[in-house]
Design goal:
TIM Barrel; elongated; binds pyridoxal-5'-phosphate; about 30% helix; alpha/beta; 2 domains; Lyase, Ornithine Decarboxylase, Chain A, domain 1; 18 strands; 9-stranded parallel β-sheet
Length: about 375
């Protein structure tokens, strides 16, 4: 195996899920495992988490099919936008459709009728994200039609929050209010509402009145908070350690700039070590001369352009040798640090750790 790998602590994922469940009970929990389980490796994470979750959630129908191929039997909600020609895959693999328009709902009903099979769906209402979904103001005919769709099993209705991790919850509360207005239509139409859900991680932490029948944690499951200023009402811990090893070690003198573009050079002779990991592994090139790593418990700066497959670290006068372990994430370095160095949020470095990096699963 490569010396560069990701260690995933499954027990910590379980603890995070249980902490979320205790906070939202009696609401159900849909564990979001899209984007390769936020980079943690869906092949190891999804089968492990399945017994602790009520539903699994993914963005793409292909991700849902992959979960079925892994042997997952719990309901799988495909949350992203879907084209009508992708509908047969939902039937074939028993995936739950997000019905985000009246056209898609009716196409799904027709397909289910023609095949004689039952297709599961959750209705998607747009209360203020303007991404996919039927606007709350146009929801009445949508819900009415969904009740009349006799070949579909409409098991849920949901919406998505645009600003739930912000200190100012005015927009999140407006979205909840609009959603509750939509749910009230069920009473008016004389039908029982299906499973209602709206909370992502930010909503779980900051909008307890919005937990409803189910919540959809993503980033929190992996032990990270969805924003720097969010209220930390549930205690969670990261589960990842990104490890590598020094493959080359030498003293570099002044006047010998390091890496592409010659962006950095030593002011005095210093030890420069090389780490076999680069931007093709998801160690972003834009962290050049910003990132830090930990070797033998001590923090050191990354120097010179991060390459596709390797980067260099300045360890000064310290005796760092070939084979020494290098920590890229974990042991005091968090995805929030990587995010800061790369000028993005903590979701992006996690979800970009590429398939080329082996995942190793541990418990404890
Ligand atoms: C990704 C996603 C989530 C999870 O969001 P987090 O902020 O990671 O908790 C929840 N719901 C939907 C519809 C999503 O697409």
């Amino acid at each position: 195996m490569r010396p560069t790998y990701l260690e995933v602590n499954l027990t910590q994922l379980q603890r995070n899920l249980e902490a979320i469940r205790a906070h939202v009970a009696p609401a159900k929990v849909l564990a979001v495992v899209k984007a390769n389980a936020y980079g943690h490796g869906v092949d190891g994470v999804a089968p492990f988490l399945e017994p602790f979750a009520d539903y699994l959630g993914v963005a793409l129908v292909e991700e849902g099919i992959h979960l079925r191929e892994l042997g997952i039997t719990k309901p799988i909600l495909v949350m992203g936008g879907t084209l009508a020609d992708q509908l047969p895959a939902f039937l074939e693999h028993d995936l739950t459709l997000t019905a985000s328009s009246l056209d898609l709902l009716l196409a799904a009903d027709r397909l289910a009728e023609s095949t004689g099979k039952c297709l599961r769906a959750h209705l998607k209402i747009d209360t203020g994200m303007e991404r996919v979904g039927v606007r709350d103001t146009e929801a009445e005919p949508f819900i009415e039609k969904s009740i009349a769709c006799s070949h579909l099993s409409v098991e849920g209705i949901y919406t998505h929050l645009a600003n739930s991790e912000m200190p100012d919850l005015v927009h999140a509360r407006l979205q909840l209010e609009r959603f509750q207005g939509v749910l009230a239509l069920y009473d008016k139409l004389g039908a029982p509402p299906p499973i209602c859900h709206l909370c992502n991680s930010g909503g779980i932490l900051q909008l307890p009145e919005g937990h409803l029948d189910m919540v959809r944690p993503g980033i929190m499951l992996y032990g990270y908070y969805p924003g720097g200023d969010v209220q930390r009402t549930v205690e969670i811990q990261p589960a990842l350690t990104w490890r590598s090893q020094v493959v080359y070690s030498k003293i570099t003198p002044p006047g010998r700039p390091v890496s592409y573009g010659s962006l950095w050079q030593a002011e005095a002779p210093t030890r420069i070590v090389t780490v076999p990991c680069g931007y093709a592994d998801g160690y972003f090139r834009r962290m050049t001369n910003q990132a830090r790593v930990v070797i033998r418990g001590k923090s050191y700066p990354q120097v010179g352009r991060i390459c596709m497959d390797q980067f260099m670290v300045d360890v000064g006068a310290d005796e760092v040798q070939v084979g020494d372990e290098v920590i890229l994430l974990g042991q005091g370095i968090s995805a929030d640090d990587l995010a800061l160095w790369a000028g993005t949020n903590n979701y992006e470095p996690l979800t970009n750790i590429s398939a080329r990096v082996p995942r190793v699963y541990v418990s404890g």
